[in-house]
Amino acid sequence: MTLQTEFRNAMAQLGSAVSVITTDGPAGKFGFTASAVCSVTDAPPTLLVCMNRNSFANAHFKQNGALCVNVLSSDHQDLSGVFANASLRSEQRFEYDSWQVMASGAPVLSSAVASFDCVIDTCHEVGSHTVFYCQVQAIRISEAPRGLVYFNRRYHAVGHDVEA
Description:
Blueprint: H1 3-11, E1 16-17, E2 19-23, E3 30-34, E4 37-42, E5 45-52, H2 58-64, E6 66-71, H3 77-84, H4 90-93, E7 99-101, E8 107-109, E9 114-126, E10 129-141, E11 146-151, E12 154-159
Antiparallel strand pairs: 1-11, 2-3, 2-6, 4-5, 5-10, 6-9, 7-8, 9-10, 11-12
């Protein structure tokens, strides 16, 4: 087994929130599903988002200079698949669910657990991926009781049950 295969297998054991990352601007409207998102600092509020350098949308995100991290709820497993489906045209992906915009103009998923509307501050190319450092401009938090995580190559719902 190669070190790369071992790395991928070990990373499958690291549970991650599932998000749809979106952008809109001069380069057009694009989005993709990601689990490689994390907090960098709260002063100023900054997130890190990783995208494959070979992604059809990579250059468009860079040109637009803005993105929104839409954290998915447990009800969004199908939407995650839509934004991971390379055979769908970008505009088709946004036909699913309801979208709005905040400060950056990037699409915000109306039913997301949380949305972080950001401007891209810096990009670094690391191996096969672009690492975007994104300064948060606005945040929207919902009352969704359960989030969606990816662990051991499967989706799982996490959170609390709604009291009756």
